[in-house]
From TrEMBL:
This is M42 family metallopeptidase. Gene3D superfamilies: Peptidase M42, domain 2, Zn peptidases. Belongs to the peptidase M42 family. SUPFAM superfamilies: Aminopeptidase/glucanase lid domain, Zn-dependent exopeptidases. It holds the Pfam family Peptidase_M42. Keywords: Aminopeptidase, Hydrolase, Metal-binding, Protease. It comes from the Bacteria. InterPro entries: Peptidase_M42, Peptidase_M42_aminopept, Peptidase_M42_dom2. It comes from Luteolibacter algae.
């Protein structure tokens, strides 16, 4: 499982799939799961693969998109102005490499720049640079060259560039877009494993679009699939670096899969949360239980959809998400896959019915 995980994570993290332009990750999903079950997509581009048995419909989903940018304008002297797609801190952007995906499929390498600090007055030298004062330099000398020779257009998506890289500590890996390519790898790997079992339900494996810009894909995905229960796989932020009280960390690298009980967008169905925790304990799956003061996931949209969907988020903590370089522990990922498989195996008719039996 580990070798397949690393191969999947490399392929997925190195894919160019900014919100609204998820084609490369969608193609990987389709290629990997084409023999698992029938494939379909909603009209926003979220994709599903169903593996049918009798029983309740269980959705196992991750979002395919990553934070990135979009070409907003091109200056006369050949620089690119851009807007952010998803949540960025400008202090993490300057000097970083990006790739612009053109409409003919080429990827143009560039770097994010601004007016050099040497030319700034002391009063503003240490202040954050606003995105409006940044630009992307691809080595062009004019707007005409950008259009005619580079084939760059207004509206082209821009993704961070950061190859999948093993670190000196053998379990740790660095890449862009672990939020949420760990979730997508988990969906694919769980599908491969569960397809060979006699699970007590119909499982719909899915990749949603546009999570990073407001959970947009999850809304139409819920209407499309109409699941009875949902498991969301995610790459949430770790809290185990300097500046945190490590005794209070709930997203520690090497701590196991994160089971999220609360964030401002979703309160996990308590019965489903307890089932997930008990399942992890009985199977000796390393896990960490989490209550978050901020953030949100596709669970925020899914749990409110239709007449309500019991939803839980399982995550792989990642340091420095929403930057060019994030870090995970591969054992946390493997724990997430193991818990996803084990939890799906518990969701039979009686158990799913009990999650919402209020009267």
């Amino acid at each position: 499982m580990r070798a397949k995980a690393l191969s999947l994570l490399q392929e997925l993290t190195e894919a160019h799939s900014v919100s609204g332009h998820e084609d490369e990750v969608r193609a990987i999903f389709i290629d990997e799961l084409s023999e698992i079950g029938p494939l379909a997509a909603d009209k926003n581009g979220s994709v599903i693969c169903a593996h049918s048995n009798d029983g309740p419909r269980v959705l196992i989903a991750g979002h395919m998109d990553e934070v990135g940018f979009m070409v907003q304008n091109m200056t006369l002297d050949g620089f690119i102005q851009f807007v952010a797609i998803g949540g960025w801190s400008t202090q993490h952007m300057l000097g970083q490499r990006v790739q612009i995906l053109t409409r003919n499929g080429d990827k143009i390498m560039g770097v994010i720049g601004s007016k050099p600090v040497h030319f700034l007055p002391p009063s503003v030298r240490d202040q954050p640079v606003p995105i409006e004062a940044m630009f992307i330099d691809v080595g062009a000398s004019s707007r005409r060259e950008l259009r005619d020779d580079f084939d760059i257009s207004i509206g082209d998506p821009i993704a961070p560039w950061s190859p999948f890289t093993p670190l000196a500590r053998s379990n740790n890996y660095l890449a862009k877009a672990f939020d949420n390519r760990v979730g997508m790898a988990g969906v694919i790997q769980s599908a491969t494993e569960l397809a060979g079992t006699d699970h007590p339900n119909e499982i719909v494996f899915a990749g949603s679009v546009q999570e990073e810009v407001g959970l947009r894909g999850a809304r139409t995905l819920a209407a499309f699939v109409k699941p009875d229960v949902a498991i969301v796989l995610e790459g949430p932020p770790a809290d185990d670096t300097p500046g945190f009280n490590l005794s209070e960390s709930q997203g520690k690298l090497g701590g196991g899969v994160q089971i999220r009980l609360y964030d401002p967008t979703a309160i996990t169905n308590p019965r489903l949360a307890q089932l997930a925790i008990q399942t992890a304990e009985k199977a000796n799956i390393p896990h960490q239980v989490t209550v978050r003061r901020s953030g949100g996931t596709d669970a925020g949209a899914l749990h409110q959809a239709n007449q309500g969907i019991p939803t839980i988020v399982l995550g792989v903590p990642a340091r420095y998400i929403h930057t060019h370089n994030a870090i995970i522990d591969i054992d946390d990922y493997l724990a997430m896959v193991s818990l996803t498989i084990a939890l799906a195996g518990k969701l039979d008719d009686a158990t799913v019915d009990s999650l919402t039996r209020y009267i």
